[in-house]
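A common beginner's mistake is to predict each chain separately and then try to dock the pieces by hand. The better habit, illustrated here, is to supply every component at once so that their relative placement is modeled jointly.
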Amino acid sequence: MSFLDYFKGKRKQTASVAKERLQIILAREHAAGSSGPDYLPALKKEILEVVSKYVVVDNDAIQVNVERDDNCEILELNIALPENQKELAAAE
Amino acid sequence: MAKVIVVTSGKGGVGKTTTSASFATGLAMKGNKTVVIDFDVGLRNLDLIMGCERRVVYDFVNVLNNEATLKQALIKDKHTENLFVLPASQTRDKEALTEEGVERILNELKEDFDYIVCDSPAGIEKGALMALYFADEAIIVTNPEVSSVRDSDRILGILSAKSKRAIDGVEPIKEHLVITRYSPKRVEMGEMLSIDDIKDLLSIPLIGVVPESDSVLSASNSGVPVIHDIDSDSGQAYADVVDRFMGAKLPLRFLNVEKKGLLSRIFGS
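With all components supplied together, the output reads:
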C-alpha cells in the first residue's frame, strides 16, 4: 500500500512540472520574440567584423540584447575583450 | 458579412482536421451556409474525415490555377445541408498557394457563404501561413501536453504578427481555444495539464474542451464528423463549441471523472 502511495505521489508531480517548464520556456520565447528584431543577427555579425579589424575577439565574445521598458527600447552591446590580446594595430 | 475562421495549432496530430470537420458541420447544422477548405496541399485528409474522398474531382489548386471553377470543385456534403468541402490537391505542394490566388478564392466564396473554415496544415510554413493570413477569427486546437501548448503559443505569436489583420493594423484576429484529447481522469491524478493550467499559459478565451474519446476514431473510420454522433461526449462537446462560437453561454462539460449515471443525476440533462 505504501509503495502504491509512493508511486501515486511521484506521478502527481508531472503535470505541475510540465506547467512550470512551459511557463519558463514561453516567457523566454516571448522575450526573444520581442527583443529580437530580424536584423539583430546581421547587426551582431557586422559589429563583430568591425571589432575584429582592431582586436582579436572570439565569435561568441559579443552579446547583443534588446530590452524593452514601457516606452523605450535599449540596445545593449557587450563585447568581452581577451586579457592578453594582441593589438593588430600595434603589430603592424 | 462572411467570416473566415482558421483552425490551427502549429503541432500536427492534435485534432485540427477533426475540429474543422465538426465545427464546420455544426455551423451548417445551424443553418449557416458554410464551406470548409483543406489547406494541407499534398497531404489532404479533410475529404476522408468528411467522407467525401471518392467525390473529389477538382481541388483548391485547380481553382487557384483557373483549371476549374469554384462551382466545379466544391463538394456538397451528403449529411448536412448548407455545407460544402473544398479539398486540397494531393499532387502539388504548398508553394502552389499564392497570396493573390487564395485571396481571390476567399473573396469569391465570401459572396456565397456565411462562414469559411480554413483547415490549416501543421507547421508554420507556407500552407499554415496562407491558411491563417486572411482569417477574421482563429480556433487554436491544443492538447494538454507540453509540445502542443508551446506550439500553440508560437502560432498565437504568428497570428498577431504575420496575419493580414496584423500587417494592416486593423482589429486583430479573434482567438478561441479548443482543448482536445482531454482526460479528466489523468488531470485528477496530476498527470496531465489541467484546463486552468493551459488557460494560464496561453491566456486566450476557452471555447470548448473535447474529451479523449473512442468515438473520434470511429467517426474518422466511417467518414462522418464526430459532431453527428450526438450520443458521444466528444460529439456533444463539439456541438457546445459551435453554440459558444455563436454566442451562447454554456458551462463546460466532461471535465469531471465520469461515474456512470451519477453525473447526470447531479447535473440534470
